[in-house]
Design goal:
The protein contains 8 helices and no strands. It is mainly alpha-helical.
């Protein structure tokens, strides 16, 4: 029977671990904001307000204006529908129908608290995003650049080849952001979870396993 050592787990350096704490907490707050927005929708449904059937983004400019009017007691559907902005104004007749409901004081109280909570979460998410950008810049400056492949040996007669800039955390986020389906936030999470040196994982399956484990830890 052969006995072997277990393969060592990848432990990111401290700077990357700190960045990962920030991105994971931001993900938690984003999820909390989605749940709170769903609660707003629940209150509206109980008041027979079908605003979501007309407005895709309830927290957008038009939606927020109508919700604020609803909280303030301006229950006339035509008055609230007239608050629609830009292209949403073409839907005013539908908005009037969607805003026709029975809104009680406890509905307004709940909506006011929920919107205040969403605003607070937005502030915290924005603050975390700024901290993440700062952390990425610090990592890009403090840590030596990591390349996925070693440099080729110099050849005397070789023609001159343009050398790409060193890979840093900030540049990795910019490059990942060019991939369809990945936005800056997603790119920041990827860099925080797996870093920028793919060679440490040796194979694609190991990289995928690490990514799955990191996702489960959030």
């Amino acid at each position: 029977m052969r006995f072997g050592l277990l393969q060592a787990s990848f432990i990111p350096p401290k700077g990357q671990r700190d960045l990962r704490d920030l991105t994971r907490y931001r993900t938690t707050l984003v999820q909390a904001r989605v749940r709170e927005a769903n609660r707003v929708q629940g209150v509206l449904e109980r008041a027979n307000i079908k605003l979501a059937s007309v407005i895709s983004d309830m927290m957008g400019v038009s939606g927020r204006a109508m919700l604020e009017a609803l909280i303030a007691g301006r229950v006339d559907p035509a008055t609230m529908a007239a608050l629609a902005k830009r292209r949403m104004r073409t839907k005013i007749p539908r908005l009037e129908q969607a805003l026709t409901g029975i809104v009680h004081d406890h509905h307004r109280q709940l909506l006011a608290m929920q919107l205040a909570h969403i605003d607070f979460l937005d502030e915290q998410i924005e603050a975390l995003t700024r901290a993440i950008v700062t952390s990425l810049k610090a990592l890009s400056t403090a840590e030596p650049s990591v390349e996925d492949h070693p440099p080729l040996p110099a050849v005397r007669s070789a023609p001159s080849v343009a050398v790409s800039p060193p890979l840093t955390c900030t540049r990795a986020v910019e490059r990942l952001d060019t991939i369809p389906g990945i936005d800056p936030r997603g790119a920041e999470v990827m860099v925080a979870e797996i870093g920028i040196a793919r060679s440490r994982f040796e194979t694609a399956p190991r990289l995928g396993a690490c990514a799955r484990t990191s996702h489960a830890a959030r």
